[in-house]
Amino acid sequence: MQIATVGVIGAGQMGNGIAHVFALSGYDVLLTDVNTDALHKARDLIEKNLARQVTREKITESDKDAALARISTTQTLADLGGTDLVIEAATERETVKTAIFEDLVPHLKPETILTSNTSSISITRLASRTDRPEKFMGFHFMNPVPVMQLVELIRGIATDRETYDALLAVVESLGKTAASAEDFPAFIVNRILMPMINEAVYTLYEGVGSVISIDTAMKLGTNHPMGPLELADFIGLDTCLAIMNVLHDGLADTKYRPCPLLTKYVEAGWLGRKSGRGFYDYRGDTPVPTR
Ligand SMILES: CC(=O)CC(=O)SCCNC(=O)CCNC(=O)[C@H](O)C(C)(C)COP(=O)(O)OP(=O)(O)OC[C@H]1O[C@@H](n2cnc3c(N)ncnc32)[C@H](O)[C@@H]1OP(=O)(O)O
Ligand SMILES: NC(=O)C1=CN([C@@H]2O[C@H](COP(=O)(O)OP(=O)(O)OC[C@H]3O[C@@H](n4cnc5c(N)ncnc54)[C@H](OP(=O)(O)O)[C@@H]3O)[C@@H](O)[C@H]2O)C=CC1
């Protein structure tokens, strides 16, 4: 199947990055969000990130202008009806995602491939809430999307070969690399990464180290580009907690118990970079550790 137009649902940090890379690779993109402000912010951020790529001589000014011209925005979900591929990248909450699919499905062409960028939720269960489980897949991009090479491809129990092959070809057209994961809670990347981040929060909670000592230890001791607490803030603490809850509920093992400090931060609205405060405070010129 020829994929030319892509609908992206959710204009947060992942939605804007996904729209950016698809537009730069020549796809027409229609980006939607319930929040008009998020749509405006996403467009500005895409423009800024494309400009950064021009400065670093990764792309030309005309590549940037052409990519921006390929991105349209809408607040009406039904406008995505004519797209060939839909990527849902809204908040990591199953009720939010299923409500989106239920609203969207009546407007879609029969051949449209439906995907979710979920970090952890069962693809089989999400697919079962649509009219096309055989054309439904997990399509998991990494943050920041324009920089990260990997896309995890997750087949639900009903996904057909044609859909998998079509998405594999899309990943190649973006110049990225696919890794296949089976449909178990949090797939591969977050099954491994999120317990490490959660353990870093326990290390802080139990007073083994400060925010700075934990991040410095992991950056300089294991050559990670970001420390685990800095990375948690970058991903979003609400998303980290949601993933730990899916692991805990889905695998029924206490080793996945979310750290109470992570829960408390989310309850306080301290969600990391996106809310201005998490393990670091981002309101000044440089991030300041909070513990
Ligand atoms: C939660 C999930 O479900 C799954 C996930 O995504 S888990 C999270 C996965 N992501 C990570 O682990 C990220 C870890 N961090 C990193 O790799 C690095 O810190 C980073 C790439 C984010 C930034 O690297 P840095 O060296 O500190 O910053 P900086 O020098 O400004 O940028 C590095 C490059 O990225 C580019 N870049 C950074 N952010 C960008 C963006 N949003 N858009 C476009 N380009 C961007 C820069 O232009 C630069 O490009 P070149 O090297 O080609 O010149
Ligand atoms: N952050 C990360 O590092 C990664 C996240 N992901 C996954 O990507 C998805 C998005 O995450 P991320 O971009 O970080 O989250 P953000 O919180 O940055 O963005 C989510 C966006 O979705 C919007 N939204 C909520 N409900 C709806 C709806 N019904 N219709 C349309 N838009 C809606 C939110 O609006 P509002 O703010 O008004 O609620 C917000 O603008 C999640 O499933 C997450 O697990 C995958 C890989 C990495």
Q: Would you kindly provide a written description of the structure presented here, covering whatever features stand out?
A:
This protein has 11 helices and 10 strands. It is α/β, with parallel strands linked by helices and 291 residues long. It folds into 2 domains: 5-182, Rossmann fold (3-Layer(aba) Sandwich), CATH 3.40.50.720; 190-289, N-(1-d-carboxylethyl)-l-norvaline Dehydrogenase, domain 2 (Orthogonal Bundle), CATH 1.10.1040. Strands 3-2-1-4-5-6-7-8 form an 8-stranded mixed beta sheet. A two-stranded antiparallel sheet has the order 9-10. The protein is globular, with a radius of gyration of 19 Å. The mean pLDDT is 97. The structure holds acetoacetyl-coenzyme A (CAA) and NADPH dihydro-nicotinamide-adenine-dinucleotide phosphate. The site of NADPH dihydro-nicotinamide-adenine-dinucleotide phosphate has 28 residues, from helix 1, helix 4 and strand 6. The site of acetoacetyl-coenzyme A has 19 residues, from helix 2, helix 7 and helix 9.
